[in-house]
Amino acid sequence: MENYLIAMGVSAGIYALMALGLNVIWGMAGLVNLGLVGFFAVGAYVSALLTTTFGLPIWAGMLAGMLAGAATGVVVALITARLRGDYLAIVTLGFAETIRMVADNEVWLTHGSDGISGIPGPFRAELTPTQFNLVYLGIVAALVTVAFFLFERLSFSPFGRVLRAIRDDEQVAAVAGKWVIAYKVKAFAIGCGALGIAGALYAHYTSFIAPDIFVPLLTLYIKLSLLAGGVGSNRGAIAGAVLVVTFLEGTRFIIPFVPGVSAVQGAALREMLVSGFLLLLLRFRTQGLVPEAHSHLSPTAHRPLKEATHA
């Protein structure tokens, strides 16, 4: 039970990293991205291949996974720079499916449907399974903390305010002299970098990845996390990720008490419970658990004028 709870914590941390990345792309810049799992897979495969095939250190593999996710985000952003709304959503969804099909068919590179096994984890050989899980939970928590503070700084920076201006009215931002496409590309790069390192963390924790892991359902869960927590809020992204993981895992213990339900029906019932819970949450908390702050001025701007002048 202890290892199970720790594994839930690791999953919640990985979801939180992905939700933070999505918050930059969607919550701040207003860009609809349904290809989250594709960037997640890029980070996972790059880190796994570099550490298993080429023998690079784990930290180098994770860094490469993050950079690969960011670089892939730049390419996708440049291709879709002038697309909006449903068109952007369809293209990014197609991108994620393309990544999964490439991983499934390019056996020479990704081992196809057999996947990549034996992915090293930090100190895995020297620690017991429980100790490894605790250490990895600490690593994930530290990375989530660093990402949160960096994205909070980004949120209050001039760059973050321009992203929100683009989200609210792209034409007005362009008239104000902002190079809209460049900001969109940067938002994609930053957000997809977080998705890439989340994928690398997943690969080194489970020690195995395969194409059938990277399905669109994972994208849906991350979108649910941000919706439940509060679109545009970094605190909300983390709170929503923890809530979604807790609810997803908690329903496992409810289904066995439902009479006359098969395993397949139980899985469908779990999805229905998650959907119903989200509808109830958004009915009574339309802006999520931790709504986006109305003011995004710098922290010093909230101080009295006289105090700010003498600071």
Question: Can you describe what's shown?
Answer:
The chain has 311 residues and is an all-alpha fold. The protein has a domain at 2-215. It contains 13 helices and two strands. The protein has helices at residues 2-28, 36-52, 58-79, 85-105, 107-110, 129-156, 158-168, 170-175, 180-206, 216-229, 234-250, 263-284, 305-310, and strands at residues 116-117, 208-209. Helix 1 packs across helix 10 (216-229) and helix 1 packs across helix 11. Mean pLDDT is 89; it is low at 297-311.
Q: What would you say about this model in short?
A:
This protein has a domain at about 1-215.
What attributes characterize this protein structure?
311 residues, two-stranded antiparallel ribbon, 13 helices, 2 strands, disordered C terminus
- Order of strands across the main sheet: 1-2
Helix and strand sequence = HHHHHEHHHHEHHHH
> Cα distance, first to last residue?
52 Å
Give the averaged pLDDT, no decimals. Answer: 89
Beta-strand percentage range: under 5%
- Report Rg: 20 Å
Q: What does the overall shape look like?
A: globular
State the helical fraction.
over 70%
Structural class: mainly alpha
With helices defined by DSSP (H or I, 4 residues minimum), what is the helix count? 13
Largest sheet: 2 strands, antiparallel
List low-pLDDT spans.
Answer: 297-311
Number of E-type strands: 2
